Hints:
Oligomer: single chain
Number of helices: 19
Number of domains: 4
Structural class: alpha+beta
CATH architecture of the largest domain: 3-Layer(aba) Sandwich
Largest sheet: 7 strands, mixed
Mean pLDDT: 81
Amino acid sequence: MSEATxxxxxxxxxxxxxxxxxxxxxxxKRPSLTRRIMRRMQDMGVEGFEDYLAFxxxxxxxxxxxxxxxxxxxxxxxxxxETWGYLxxxxxxxxxxxxxxxxxxxxxxxxxxxxxxxxTMAMLxxxxxxxxxxxxxxxxxxTDVDEEALQVARHGTYSPEDLEPVPPELRAKYFEPEEEDxxxxxxxxxxxxxxxxxxxxxxxxxxxxxxxxxARNTLIYxxxxxxxxxLTNFHxxxxxxxxxxxxxxxxxxxxxxxxxxxxxxxxxxAPLPRAGDFRNRLLHLVRDAEEGAGEHQPHPTEGLRETGxxxxxxxxxxxxxxxxxxxxxxxxxxxxxxTHRDLLRPLSDLEVSxxxxxxxxxxxxxxAERRPVSVNEVPFQVGGEQRFFDVRVFxxxxxxxxxxxxxxxxxxxxxxxxxxxxxxxxxxxxxxxEQAQSSAExxxxxxxxxxxxxxxxxxxxxxxxxxxxxxxxxxxxxxxxxQELETLNDEMVLRTTEYDQANALMESVLNQMKVxxxxxNTELIVEAWSERAxxxxxxxxxxxxxxxxxxxxxxxxxxxxxxxxxACLAGTGTQELILDAVNRLxxxxxxxxxxxxxxxxxxxxxxLLTVEELPE
Length: 616
């Protein structure tokens, strides 16, 4: 991968971090920033910046670990004890002596990380002031860009190892035991003196009227241009009698026109007088144009006016009548990367003269027409993000003609995005309305189909009710038929019982008779065969019943009896004859055979044959 590709990938990664989380690392020193990001990439097994950007998109929790790696929140109580001793013995007494007992004391601890430094400052001032005076006068602002570290600082709970640098008497006075984890928590009275908040030294406006400003080992992360911007903001923040405290690895350059060293070894600096400050140059330029270069007594409200102009949330430029840049407030300096060296330079030499809009033509037009000139929604790339500004140019005229021009850049990005979202929402609403109308028509058609289906269901319901009624009628008829069948069944059971009884009686009678009894029907089929017949011819009843009588192979000459039986069935009355026969043992015998018809109604239903063995 080439260096150009690496640099482009890093810029895209930094732009993504700024857009997603609001952290602007573009002003940090690139070698150390790149080294720390690549160290994190190596830990995660990611090779290129593009791959790591994709990893951040997929794993948002990685942001916190990355920020901790970049910011290196290394701090402790009374870190560099020699510096804190110097502050306690020399700087704090000077500061308090320069103030009246009613003046407020304002401290700003930048890059406070997990809060040890502002709590250390609060303890030193707690020892220098009375308790009532402390609550009434002292206010400490502690800021950092790391929200997780600020949460730790706000809670104010530290382990025994963290509190080892704190002298025992201060530890007993300003900390109390924490029951949950065995640590120590800052006393509530000390905690109330400190205001913790997120603040970006590059993007956010500085806090004003500060007596002591600590930025220990904070500037080392930034490049020289960004350091100069931050030091300019620090100079604005500090009172004339204020002090700037830097880290051991940081120093204000010897050629700086903003600060002078108080103690270079301990990195304590004081702001140079504001008489040469570029904020006053505008006043001198305007006064020179209107009144000449004579002496001028400052108006009591000039300081308030300057402060308000410097802290205006709208980026603002003042251009002198001869085309030189006279003043740029904090927001304009940050937005257009203007330094104090650019002041009093011709506007045409600066990039802001043609980006985001051609200012020189607007300035000429405003003075020619002697009225404000505006250009709305001008796009401008800021840190990889496109923003929109309304640019308003005001001609400034004095008694002797034009003395300068005021140029204001109002950020309307949010309103532009709101307008775009509103238009998008309007388009989506129109589409949704059409879809809703189409859905309503489909719903109406579906409703008609449902009504038709409902009518069909009602018709089917009526048919089902009619069928149900018929089924109920059939069920009643079946129940009646079932009852009749049960009655018939009972009668049949009774008849069967009677038949069985009669049959048993007949069999008993037949078996008790001394003669052989044979009963045949009209077809000459044997229907009864007595035990005496079995004894005579050795043929059991099971084998004889159901067989044709003439076909029985017994010792009785049945063929000779066929005519007798037929005549008996024809109604000629009882027939009787004597026959020679053979018994089952093969012995000859003589027997008397009598045939009597069985009459049921008018016709014979069968014949009863009796065979009696005669004595020899």
